[in-house]
Design a protein that fits this description.
Radius of gyration: 19 Å
Strand content: under 5%
Number of strands: 0
Number of helices: 7
Largest sheet: none
Helix content: over 70%
Order of helices and strands: HHHHHHH
Shape: globular
Length: 163
Amino acid sequence: MPDLIDGSENVSVHGILNWIFLLTIFSIITAIGNYLGYHHPMEQSLVGMAILSLITLAGVWMERYLPLNVSSILYISIIGIILAFPGMPTSKFVLHYVSQVELLSIVTVFLAYVGIGMGKSWDEFKALGWKAIVVTVLVIAATYYGAAIVAHIMLVLTGVPAA
C-alpha cells in the first residue's frame, strides 16, 4: 500500500483527499480525548479541530504552490496568527473554538501516530545501531531539561516562588 502522504512536491486531488481523510480521523480522535479528558463539549472541540485542520491544509497547499522556499509550518503559523489577531473579524470565533481544544489532546494523538509510524519502520531504526539509540535518548533528555530550565527561569523572572 503506498504511503497516504508521500511528501512529493506535487499535490494531486488524491493527495489532498488523503490529507483530509487523515486530518478528519485525527480531529475525531482528538475531540473524543478532549471530551473524555478535559470535559470540553464534543461539538465545540470538533469545530476547533476543523479550524486547525483547514489552517493546516492551507499551509500545506501554500508550501507546495507558492514560489517561495518556505516550510508549511511557517505558513500555518502565519495563517493562525492572522485569523486570531485581535481586531480581525475572525478572531473571536477562532479563539473561542480553538481554545476548546487542549494541546495535550492533540499531542497525545500525534505521538500515537508517530509511534505507529516508527513501529512500521522498526527494522530501519534497528539498522542504525546502538549509537542512534544513545543519540535519541540524549536528544529527548536535553529537550526535557532545556524546557525545564527555561520554564524555571521564566517563573523566577515573573516572581513565582521556586518550589
